[in-house]
C-alpha cells in the first residue's frame, strides 16, 4: 500500500479468523472486530439482519449501509445474492472512500464463492475516485453481478444532501449501521439521525448494528425503534437489531 494511503487510512491487520481489516490511525480503531472481521460481518449484519434468510427465500432485498468502509459487508451480501440467485440492491454511504488498490489488498476474494466480485467493486471505486477528482457528481451505481447492483453515495451520511438523495429511493428492507464507535463518529448515533433512518426503512424492515450502548438504545427508541439485544460473535457479548415500533407515535 502506498505510504500516503497508509497514513490516511491505516495499516493492514489480520483478525482472529484470519480475515483482514485496516487499523485506522485517524480514529485509532480497526474497521472490524479484531476477533474476526468476516465472522463479525456475517454474525451482526448478513445473518443478524436477516439478509441471508431473505435471499435464501428468494426475496429481492434492498440494503442501506451507513459506513461502506472496506466493502466487506457489501461483498458478502452480493456473494449470497449470487449463491441464491436473488436480486440485491445495495446502497452504501461513505465519507472517505477506500481506493481500489486498498480494496484488492484486503484479499476478500479468498472468502467469496464468487471472487470476481472484488474486481467489479474495485472498478466502481476507481471510477468514483476519478469522478471525484474531476469534481463531478460522485454518486454512482453499477451492476456488480447478474444479481446485485451497488450504489455508492459519497458524503456525510447525516447531511441533508445525502438524506434527500436516499429519501427519493424506495424504502430499504435492511439498514446496516456500521459507522465507527459513538465516541469516534458521534453524528451517526443521534436520535435525529436515527429518525431519518427510521423514515428510510420499510415498516417490516430491520436495522442491525454492533453497538449496544445504553445511550444508543435509548436514542433508537426515541426515534421510533424497538430494540433487541442478542448474543454477539467472539469477543462481543451482545449485538443489536431494531425494528420499527408500531406503537411509536409521531405528532
Ligand atoms: C466500521 S467502518 C465500516 C466497515 C464496513 N461496513 C465494511 O464492511 O467494511 C466505519 C466507516 O464509516 C465511515 N463513516 C464514519 N462517519 C461517517 C459519516 N458521518 N458519513 C459517512 N460515512 C462515515 C468511515 O469512514 C468508515 O469507513
Topology:
Elements: H1 3-8, E1 11-14, E2 20-24, E3 29-30, H2 37-47, H3 51-56, E4 61-66, H4 72-83, E5 88-94, H5 100-105, H6 116-133, E6 140-143, E7 148-154, H7 160-167, E8 172-177, H8 191-200, E9 201-209, H9 214-223, E10 225-231, E11 238-244
Helix pairs in contact: 2-4, 8-9
Residues 31, 41, 65, 67-73, 93-96, 156-158, 178-180, 185, 187-188 line the site of S-adenosylmethionine.
Description:
With 251 residues, this protein is an alpha/beta fold. It has one domain (37-244): Rossmann fold (3-Layer(aba) Sandwich), CATH 3.40.50. It is built from 9 helices and 11 strands. Helix 2 (37-47) crosses helix 4 and helix 8 crosses helix 9 (214-223). The longest helix has 18 residues, at 116-133. The structure holds S-adenosylmethionine (SAM). Residues 31, 41, 65, 67-73, 93-96, 156-158, 178-180, 185, 187-188 line the site of S-adenosylmethionine (SAM). S-adenosylmethionine is lined by residues 31, 41, 65, 67-73, 93-96, 156-158, 178-180, 185, 187-188.
Query: In oligomeric terms, what are we looking at?
Result: single chain
Number of helices: 9
Mean pLDDT: 93
Instruction: List low-confidence stretches.
Output: none
Which structural class should the secondary elements be placed in? Answer: alpha/beta
List bound small molecules: S-adenosylmethionine
Q: How many beta-strand runs?
A: 11
Order of helices and strands: HEEEHHEHEHHEEHEHEHEE
What best-fitting shape do the alpha-carbon axes yield?
globular
Terminal CA distance reads 52 Å
Amino acid at each position: 500500500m502506498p505510504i500516503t494511503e497508509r497514513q490516511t487510512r491505516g495499516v493492514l491487520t489480520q483478525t482472529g479468523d484470519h480475515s483482514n481489516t485496516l487499523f485506522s490511525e485517524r480514529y485509532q480503531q480497526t474497521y472490524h472486530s479484531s476477533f474476526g472481521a468476516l465472522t463479525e460481518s456475517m454474525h451482526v449484519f448478513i445473518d443478524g439482519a436477516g439478509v441471508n434468510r431473505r435471499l435464501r427465500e428468494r426475496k429481492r432485498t434492498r440494503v442501506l449501509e451507513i459506513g461502506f468502509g472496506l466493502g466487506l459487508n457489501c461483498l458478502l451480501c452480493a456473494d449470497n445474492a449470487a449463491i441464491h440467485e436473488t436480486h440485491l440492491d445495495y446502497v452504501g454511504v461513505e465519507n472517505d472512500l477506500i481506493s481500489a488498490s486498498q480494496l484488492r489488498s484486503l484479499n476478500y476474494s479468498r472468502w467469496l464463492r464468487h471472487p470476481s466480485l472484488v474486481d467489479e467493486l474495485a472498478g466502481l471505486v476507481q471510477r468514483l475516485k476519478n469522478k471525484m477528482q474531476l469534481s463531478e457528481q460522485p454518486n454512482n451505481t453499477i451492476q456488480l453481478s447478474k444479481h446485485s447492483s451497488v450504489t455508492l453515495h459519497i458524503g456525510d451520511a447525516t447531511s441533508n444532501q445525502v438524506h434527500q438523495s436516499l429519501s427519493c429511493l424506495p424504502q430499504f428492507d435492511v439498514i446496516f449501521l456500521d459507522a465507527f464507535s459513538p465516541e469516534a463518529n458521534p453524528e451517526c448515533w443521534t436520535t435525529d439521525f436515527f429518525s431519518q433512518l427510521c423514515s428510510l426503512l420499510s415498516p417490516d424492515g430491520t436495522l442491525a448494528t454492533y453497538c449496544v450502548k445504553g445511550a444508543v438504545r435509548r436514542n433508537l427508541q426515541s426515534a421510533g425503534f424497538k430494540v433487541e439485544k442478542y448474543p454477539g460473535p467472539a469477543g462481543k457479548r451482545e449485538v443489536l437489531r431494531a425494528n420499527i415500533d408500531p406503537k411509536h407515535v409521531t405528532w
